[in-house]
Amino acid sequence: MRFLPLLVLASQLAAANAADSSSDHLNPGPVKRDDNGYTKVVSWDKYSLIVNGQRIFVHGGEFHPFRLPVPDLWTDVFQKFKAAGLNTVSIYFHWGLSNPSKGVIDFDGVRALQPLLDAAKEIGFFLCFGNEAGRLPQTRHRCLGPYINAETTAGGIPHWVTTEVPGYLRTNSSSYTEAYTPYWEYIAEITAKNQITAGGPVILIQVDNEYVQYDSSGGNPGKGAYFADLQKALRKKGVVIPTTYNDPGMNGNFVSGEGKVDIYGIDSYTGGFDCRIGAPLTSVTTNYYQYHVATNPSQPLFIPEFQSGSIEPWGPTSVGYERCRITFGSDYESLFNINLWANNVKMVSYYMAYGGTSWGHIPFHKVYTSYDYGAAIAENRWITPKYQELKRQGLFLRSAKEFITTDVAGNSTDSSVVPVSNSDVYVTYLKNPTTSAGFYIARHTDSTSNSTVTFKLGINTSSGTLQVPASSSGITIPGRRSQITVTDFAYGSSRALYTTASILFAGSVGSRDVLYLYGEPGIQYEAAIKFSGTPTTTNSNVASLDSSVQGATLLKIKPSTSGLTFVYDNSRLIIVSSTSAADTFWSPAIAGSGNYASFWSFGSTSAVLVWGPHLVRDAELRGSKLSITGDLQTASSTDITIIGPANLSSVSLNGKSLAVTPSPKIKGIFTAKYSSSKRSINLPNLSSGWKYFDSLPEIKQNYSDQGWSVANKKTTNSPWKPYYGDSNGPILYGCDYKFCEGQVFWKGHFHATGAEKGVNLTINGGEAFAASVWLNGKFIKSTYGQSTYPAYTWPILDPAIEETDEFYEFPAGSLLAGKDNVLTVLHDNMGLNETNDWNAETSKSPRGIRGYKLQGADTTFDLWKVQGKLGGYTDYPDKTRGVLNEGGFYAERAGYHLPALPASVTNSWASRSPSQGLLTASPGVGFFRKQFTLNVDSSLDAALSFNFKDIGSNPHWRATLWINGWTMGRVVGDLGPQFKFPVQEGILNYDGTNVVAVAIWALEPGAVKVDVSMAVDAVVEGGIGKVGVVGGNSNWKPRAGLV
Asked: Which of 963, 975, 982 has its CA nearest to residue 1031?
């Protein structure tokens, strides 16, 4: 959910030579416009954001590039956003990945910002990231301030900051200010270079994320001053665009007073975080508009984060993201998203539109690797059924320019303003103050109801007051959804008097005014359309012509699944289909001319309409030649319908010429067929061919910890101090020794008298952690944390188990009297806490051993040693993948997970697969590695995954998955729920050699056997072409300092 954002409006940023923005319907009578005093290029009024004089309905989605660390694939995501009608993208940056240690700013490789913005500028498109000329959506770049939340470890704050900074985090503390300043100055500098006033795409910058302005009982002073300092730093570096902020609720933070921002917004997660239920049990929020009028009425109503899915925590009660996609599916989108419109929201971004993967050690402790979020675009980049509803809404908003400027004219609680025949229906009436175009948004009065209701509605039109529908018993709402009736609605140069059917597209195509209406089969709709002369219908069973209504032809509509129906005259075309038929409808914008050629409503104001393909990414019209790019189902024949200029002479799809047939009756309609051959993808057999290495040498008697760090610190900046320990003993928090990611080993040395019975240990690893303990190489036992469902409850500090306090009894014969004894503790760090209860100090999580005491004798530990990932967070060797990629397993420290490990290293390893398990049934860590090749045709876009299946008798195991050196998955065998791990092309080499590696940590005695396999989850013909492999040249070499 939550990141700090640099808001970049991408494709529709206006310019002096942009399309005419002075249309009356966009600029009603005298309305006060505001700006921040630094620039008038970006301004606003109570209706909308205004860029270079042109109004923008900000309709966007969240995307985190760091969760898709393959730059070539960012274009794919952006194209899908644009195809869905979105016009903005909210993009988060991750401070912790880019500032891994004090004094180190690392925006190289996949973390680079300027090359991405330069590529976007070079192709003539205002956006954050992208590299295909003008074919991506506009981008609102939420280049966050230091803290982003977003279910990331420490909320994105670098681990060195949570460890080394003594002052309060997220305040104006001098030590925290010193820590974030280099990063924030870099962000400010790159923002200044790329803001709209400098010819770039950035129009807004969010300074921090979901916070409170004033001191609270659970927090620390200096929050307002912190916001003020962040904004002063931006201005000092020449950033003139407005600042903004996302309040975590209707709390009025930073609207005024110290640290106030220019444009205020509120986040809204009204559906809760429980995907186990069929749909959110909560009602829609009904007071957005009232709160807005009382709080910031001179600004547009802005929802920077609106819930479009949910996180899923660790644990067997989690149901997985496919279930979240059902819970927060198309019905949820129809009801909850459109409820925002009814509240006159004119700026919104959906969290998430594409979630991605929390690879490595990016997640905070509550969540697992996948960050799919149940989003419209799945983790593997596949469009889903809920994407289609998002597209239907997006294309409507793109078409309905008059909707950018509306007043709330009333609702059905006042029957004199909005007369409704059924009290079970609630209707809000929005009206354009200049053209009087009306938008009646209906839902159940009880918004939790899933019943089907019908009603009659009184509407205001240019031809007088009418009651609709005229031809049936009522307007129908089929279940828990919204319904919109429009009046005096513009499409091209024409206007529809009204329609009760939904609108997918409205505008001009070629010489025709086109209106696309759709609805559910079995329900009757109607529209009153003014035609020139007598119109013709191609299917009177679907769209029949009836008597006139106030001089307009009444069109009775009964959608069917039979395809498209057309009603037309010489200058107008009405298209009718079922809702499902709209799934393969696309409206790619045709580039215009000038610097903003591809920006819808600025340089591009025309489109073609295409039905049939799985996805249409882009279309280019040169004279009478149309070129389309998109995706198609393989091994099938796709019927394609195109509406475009009547003079089209040729059409190609993905470079392949199509034999098109013009309609004999309707000019500008063409049909074609595209045949895609079946091309198989041969996956490797992962049941054999593995090499095995014992990755737990640390418990062997001959293992030396001489090179490990001495754990001797007596103080910590964490406010969560040790519970108990030896007198004057050291603090044993891994982060204090720069070991803050993944697995950490501790060795406690003590000289035994022989009377010691065991040891008390309090071990903290975060929710769902585990730890195993040995004495002199003999296993004692393991301990386990626990997660809870849902992950976010109130209070936020829920009863999940982040740490355990247990007694570890020494096994018989394990103690060496009169000698040095070594207690070995292996635990994992599941990620640091985010800000809880407005106290950012909670990110200084005490991961490690919070208490230790030998029992049975008055013996103390002589020495503690610690080892985590090689180099810690300061000297880690893998600069390509970054600070959060590796953990502390021995094989990982040695780099055995990296590509091109020479045979001289692995020749001595055993031949053994994960399905055979570890060499012994004792608790331990085994490392498995296999090389394989792929040969996937570059004309295919294939979604591949790695899958884990427990086939042994011991459920207590954990696994880590590496693909070509990238940590792409963490498995908790006895908790789950994730056992399938999508891996993107670019991490995988689709045309060459790959390496898969798996570490299995057995936590209890017994055979752990895991079947690892690959699967093709989806495939289409198309995609974006060849994708470069990221980090393919980071081959193995012996690592210095390996211990």
From this structure: 963
Run of H or E residues at 633:
strand 625-633
Would you say 1027 and 985 are in contact if contact means Cβ atoms under 8 Å apart?
Answer: yes
CB environment 855-869: b (16+ within 10 A), e (fewer): ebeebbbeebbbbbb
Provide the b/e sequence for 568-593 (b: ≥16 CB within 10 Å): bbeebbbbbbbbebbbbbbbbbbbbe
SS3 of 871-907: the string is: CCCCCCCCCCCCCCCCCCCHHHHCCCCCCCCCHHHHC
For residue 598, is pLDDT > 70? no
Q: What is the 3-state secondary structure (H, E, C) of 472-494?
A: CCCEEEECCCCEEEEEEEEECCE
Structure tokens at 959: 């696994």
Told to judge if 164 belongs to the known catalytic residues of this protein, a careful annotator would answer no
pLDDT digits (tens, 9 = 90+) for 270-295: 999 999 888 888 999 999 999 999 99
Predicted TM-score (pTM) of this structure: 0.95
Report the C-alpha gap between 812 and 780 in whole angstroms: 10
| pLDDT, position 29 | 67
> Would you call 474 exposed, middle or buried from its count of C-beta atoms within 10 A (0-12, 13-18, 19+)?
middle
Whole-angstrom Cα distance, residue 284 to residue 336? 6
Ranges of H-type helices in 254-384 = 288-295, 321-327, 330-332, 338-342
Q: List the one residue out of 373, 284, 273, 302 whose CA is nearest residue 60.
A: 302
- Cα gap 18→21, rounded to integer Å: 8
Secondary element (H or E) of residue 11? none
The sign one gets for the Cα dihedral 634, 638, 641, 642 is: positive
pLDDT digits (tens, 9 = 90+) for 492-541: 999 999 999 999 999 999 989 999 999 999 999 999 999 998 899 999 99
pLDDT class of 593 with cuts at 50, 70, 90 = confident
The Cα–Cα gap between 629 and 619 comes to 6
Position 254 scores a pLDDT of 97
List the one residue out of 490, 488, 491 whose CA is nearest residue 509. 491
* Rg for the chain, CA atoms, rounded: 30
Helices 174-194 and 223-236 pack at an angle, to 10 degrees, of 40
For 702, residues 6+ apart whose C-beta sits below 8 A from its C-beta are none
Cα distance between residue 908 and residue 545, in whole Å:
81
Q: What is the pLDDT of residue 216?
A: 66
d(CA 634, CA 677): 6
C-beta of residue 765 within 8 angstroms of C-beta of residue 802: yes
Active-site option among 62, 132, 151, 210? 210
How many residues in total does the chain contain?
Answer: 1043
What pLDDT band is residue 405 in, cutting at 50, 70 and 90?
very high
210 labelled catalytic: yes
Q: Of 337, 434, 346, 319, whose CA–CA distance to 387 is shortest? A: 337
What is the distance between the terminal CA atoms of the chain, rounded to a whole angstrom? 39
Residue 798: its pLDDT value, please?
57
DSSP state at residue 600: B
SS3 of 164-198: HCCCCCCCCCHHHHHHHHHHHHHHHHHHHHHEHHH
Beta bridge partners of 544: 556
Span 1018-1033, mean pLDDT? 90
Show Cβ contacts of residue 1038 under 8 Å, excluding neighbours closer than 6 positions: none
Question: Which of 305, 389, 892, 985 is labelled catalytic?
Answer: 305
pLDDT in tens, 838-897: 899 999 999 999 999 999 999 999 999 999 999 999 999 999 999 999 999 999 999 999
Mean pLDDT is lowest, of 43-52, 602-611, 649-658, for 602-611
